[in-house]
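We were asked to recover a plausible sequence for a given structure. The inputs and outputs are reproduced exactly as logged, with field labels preserved.

PROBLEM: sequence recovery
POSITIONS: 244
GIVEN STRUCTURE:
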């Protein structure tokens, strides 16, 4: 598997950057994980909109879904220009009918509801879900292929069930919207201390901090997480990637 960061800001993107969005590739299959503001523009440094094979969404907050509409129009327009592609499946939960309905657009994209208690197969990937603690329904994902595993927390405050869900993952992509001295529970977000604790207790091989705050010194997040986790820690950045 190859994992690439496209966007990593929480809430909204900084200038010339993007909010949450990632690309996961394996055996030629290209899966986008969340598709927030700015992701379409920044992803085109890596691949064309019509080259995506599927999209999966953790939840429907705009910083995770804002560019779905422009992705649909990009594929529509490219079809007019001769680059026709298959109808793109966009996987999302069914707990918000209005937002889910937006995932289907003409013959361009098709919304497909996932069942959180069942393993979902998308191309070469097997995806398991865990509902997170967030103000709206949101799901963490454990994605596996050929014996390798990636866990993406989505948006959530710390919850003990994430430990077993993330156990021994090759890469933990963990939201970190707050510094260690803060309390993110009411907002439904994790602190750097929470991220380090989760990585340590789940015995993951690598921790990537993402969904980053717009203030403070971001390197402090790594330092604080390292107080609880002794393994490798990195901050998400544009086009950060890992093969595993």
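RECOVERED SEQUENCE:
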């Amino acid at each position: 598997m190859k994992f690439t960061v496209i966007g990593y800001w929480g809430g909204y993107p900084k200038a010339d950057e993007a909010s949450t969005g990632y690309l996961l590739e394996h055996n030629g299959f290209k899966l986008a994980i969340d598709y927030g503001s700015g992701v379409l523009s920044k992803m085109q440094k890596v691949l064309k909109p019509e080259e995506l094979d599927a999209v999966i969404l953790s939840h429907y907050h705009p910083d995770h879904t804002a560019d779905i509409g422009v992705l649909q129009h990009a594929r529509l327009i490219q079809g007019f220009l001769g680059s026709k592609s298959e109808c793109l499946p966009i996987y999302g939960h069914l707990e918000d009918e209005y937002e889910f309905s937006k995932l289907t657009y003409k013959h361009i994209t098709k919304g497909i509801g996932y069942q959180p208690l069942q393993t979902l197969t998308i191309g070469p990937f097997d995806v398991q879900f865990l509902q997170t603690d967030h103000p709206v329904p949101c799901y963490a994902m454990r994605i596996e292929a050929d014996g390798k595993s990636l866990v993406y927390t989505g948006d959530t405050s710390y919850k003990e069930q994430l430990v077993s869900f993330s156990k021994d993952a090759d890469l933990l992509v963990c939201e970190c919207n707050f510094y260690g001295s803060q309390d993110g529970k009411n907002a439904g977000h994790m602190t750097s201390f929470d991220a380090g604790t989760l990585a340590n207790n789940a015995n993951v091989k690598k921790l990537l901090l993402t969904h980053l705050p717009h203030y403070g010194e971001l390197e402090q997040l790594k330092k604080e997480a390292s107080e609880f986790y002794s393994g490798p820690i990195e901050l998400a950045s544009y086009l950060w990637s890992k093969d595993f």
